[in-house]
Design goal:
Blueprint (H helix, E strand, L loop, with lengths): L2 H20 L9 E12 L2 E11 L4 E8 L2 E6 L4 E6 L6 E11 L4 E3 L3 E5 L2 H35 L19 E3 L6 E3 L5 E3 L2 E5 L6 E4 L4 H15 L7 H12 L5
Parallel strand pairs: 2-8
Antiparallel strand pairs: 1-2, 2-5, 3-4, 3-6, 6-7, 6-8, 9-10, 11-12, 12-13
Helix pairs in contact: 1-2
Length: 254
């Protein structure tokens, strides 16, 4: 599995955990209760920090009361019906969140109950550290595999044979010229970033160098220089041979 695929998988898992916390609860009797994170930690059903409860309902909804463990913690008499709370104000452990509302016509509405585990700041920090270390471990392992495979190929002398002066496609990463053999090659995505340059391996000589992306005009000029090296020196014409013989005859003894 490549480093990119590992990164995508870890990112997807973190997003899924966040979305599970932010997703609205199913409306039980006309009200939909949503929990949103303002500042803090959330991972699945575990939350810690500052959060907001939001309620949506019928157009004539007049007031909403918010409850934690069936105890009212606040109310709102106008849209948007929302209330903020801090998990640290409650004992660590599992808690139920619910909302009740009343319409202008006097009808009573309730939302579905949601359960969350309020964790301490230390528990949240420990979970975040485990996630970060896990991600760094996966990315570090993928990087070691990629670099190790390229170093192995370099030691085995794996090279790409391309005729001198032949046109080539450089791809989305662009191309450069090897400072060792002076031949153009395509920059590899697995090359190591070094600021504005890359530490990359030449496909022709197999050597590693710091290189920069060149323009299409510069790459075309490098291909033209290769083509000159590939062409044999033209043989002397008959006139040139006669002139050379006449020049040489001046040094013969009379």
């Amino acid at each position: 599995m490549t480093g990119r695929r590992l990164l995508y998988r870890v990112t997807w898992l973190l997003w899924a955990a966040w979305f599970a916390t932010a997703a609205p609860a199913r409306a039980d009797d006309g009200l939909t209760l949503t929990l949103r994170r303002d500042f803090g930690y959330s991972n699945g059903s575990q939350i810690q920090g500052n959060f907001s409860l939001h309620v949506t309902g019928p157009a004539d909804l007049a007031s909403v009361t918010f409850l934690i463990d069936d105890q009212p913690i606040g109310a709102s008499a106008q849209a948007p019906f929302t209330l903020s709370f801090v998990t640290d104000d409650y004992a660590p452990g599992w808690h139920t969140l619910r909302a009740g509302g009343r319409t202008a016509a006097g009808n009573t509405l309730t939302s579905a109950t949601r359960r969350f585990e309020f964790v301490t700041g230390d528990q949240a920090l420990s979970s975040v550290s485990q996630i970060l270390f896990g991600m760094l471990g996966l990315l570090g392992g993928a990087l070691v595999v990629v670099i190790g495979s390229q170093v192995l190929l370099a030691r085995l002398g794996h090279k790409t044979t391309v005729p001198l002066g032949s046109p080539r496609r450089y791809g989305i990463m662009g191309g450069t010229v090897c400072p060792k053999c002076h031949r153009p090659f395509a920059i590899h995505w697995w090359g190591l970033n070094a600021g504005l340059r890359k530490y990359d391996r030449c496909d022709h000589c197999g050597k590693w160098s710091l290189v920069s992306r060149l323009s299409p005009q510069q790459l075309a000029a490098a291909e033209a220089e290769e083509l000159k090296l590939a062409q044999p020196e033209p043989s002397a014409t008959a006139a040139e041979q006669l002139k050379r013989q006449l020049d040489d005859s001046r040094y013969l003894d009379q």
